[in-house]
Specification:
It is a multi-pass membrane protein. This is Prenyltransferase. Pfam families: UbiA. The protein has 13 helices and 2 strands, in the order ββααααααααααααα. By secondary structure, it is mostly helical. The chain folds into 2 domains: about 160 residues, Tetracycline Repressor, domain 2 (Orthogonal Bundle), CATH 1.10.357; about 150 residues. A two-stranded antiparallel ribbon has the order 1-2. Strand 1 and strand 2 form a beta hairpin. Helix 2 crosses helix 6, helix 3 crosses helix 5 and helix 11 runs parallel beside helix 13.
Length: about 350
């Protein structure tokens, strides 16, 4: 009986199931990418512009390209350590993995150009370069962790640059997104430190150190900074359209903006704190288990939890940037991503 599952053809001699391609690129793990871009866009005040969605598509393509390229480069190692992966198992030819990586890289750069023009390409090109350099050369060197963290930092900065458009200098946009970009980079650094021990297990000091860094990261992400937002809200409050409904609507006009700004600040604080706690509840808990029993299996689970745990961290950073509604949406996606990760491993 013919296999009725969908297949994708690459040349006349091979046919690859779409399910195998999804496993090759770790498809569900790409749900950890949009939050990077949204956190950067929120930091400059425009989290949901059309350009932002274009950059999200670009970053997802580059992420998937990196996963496919990783399996191309690691075919020999995976044949011993992970023989069930698509390339060593023979379900996806090695040359096909390389073709997928190249095609997705070109698509990512094209989407970046369409969404952000020269500015978009100016961020996407070094991002693609880091992805390819990491997989082909840097992975096994001390620079590997910095390369991967740098790629995530560029994801966040790409969102800021695209959302900002031409209204502000690139330097100004990058400065405004520096905090979320830095925290995402620090988180990625802990993942890379753990990922080196997924097979043979880790010294106890490694998960202990990454747990401490993750706790500080969560604390910084959940802290909503005090700024001039209340005063700006007061200035807007003199117009009826800026006034919130309910009890606040009964306040005198000069106080409506202040009350609305305070309410918004509390919402940002609540969602930011919730995201930070969810981050520690997923990634932190997995690191505690790895600290108690630093076997390769537990370390691998901590890495997987860290990839998925990036989403509540992104939610906290997006709320910090002043977009609590977008942050709440990221929080809703997190359980879905974790469920999909049980079917297709994110590592």
């Amino acid at each position: 009986m013919k296999d009725r599952k969908a297949v994708a053809r690459f040349g006349s001699r091979s046919a690859v199931r779409l399910s195998d391609l999804a496993e090759l690129v770790r498809a569900p793990a790409a749900l950890s990418v949009p939050g990077d871009v949204l956190a950067g866009a929120a930091a400059v005040g425009r989290p949901l512009s059309a350009r932002t969605f274009g950059v999200i598509g670009s970053s997802v393509c580059l992420y998937w390209a990196g996963m496919a390229l990783n399996d191309y480069a690691d075919a020999a190692v995976d044949s011993v350590e992970r023989p069930g992966r698509p390339v060593p198992s023979g379900r996806v030819p090695r040359r096909t993995a390389l073709a997928v990586a190249g095609t997705l890289t070109a698509a990512g750069l094209g989407l970046a150009a369409a969404a952000g023009g020269r500015r978009g390409v100016g961020v996407a090109l070094p991002l693609a370069g880091l992805v390819w350099a990491y997989d082909l050369k840097l992975k096994s060197t001390p620079a590997g962790g910095f390369a991967m963290a740098g790629a995530r930092v560029l994801d966040v900065l790409a969102g800021a640059v695209a959302a900002g458009g031409g209204a502000e200098s690139v330097g100004g946009l990058l400065r405004r997104a520096a905090v979320p970009a830095g925290l995402v980079g620090v988180h990625t650094g802990t993942l890379m430190a753990l990922s080196r021990y997924e097979v043979g297990g880790a010294p106890e000091r490694v998960p202990s150190a990454t747990l401490a860094v993750s706790a500080v990261t969560a604390l910084a992400a959940g802290a909503v900074p005090v700024s001039g937002g209340v005063l700006r809200g007061a200035a807007r409050g003199c117009s009826a359209s800026a006034a919130p409904s309910g009890l606040v609507a009964q306040f005198p006009a000069p106080l409506k903006g202040v009350a609305g700004a305070v309410t918004s600040k509390r919402l940002r604080a609540a969602i930011g704190l919730g995201g930070a706690l969810a981050y520690l509840g997923t990634y932190g808990a997995a690191q505690v288990r790895a600290m108690r029993e630093p076997s390769g299996e537990n370390v691998g689970r901590a890495v997987g939890a860290g990839i998925m745990g990036l989403m509540p961290l992104q939610a906290a950073l997006t709320a910090r940037g002043g977009a609590p509604g977008v942050a709440a949406a990221l929080g809703v996606i997190h359980p879905l991503a974790r469920r999909l990760a049980r079917r297709i491993s994110p590592t």
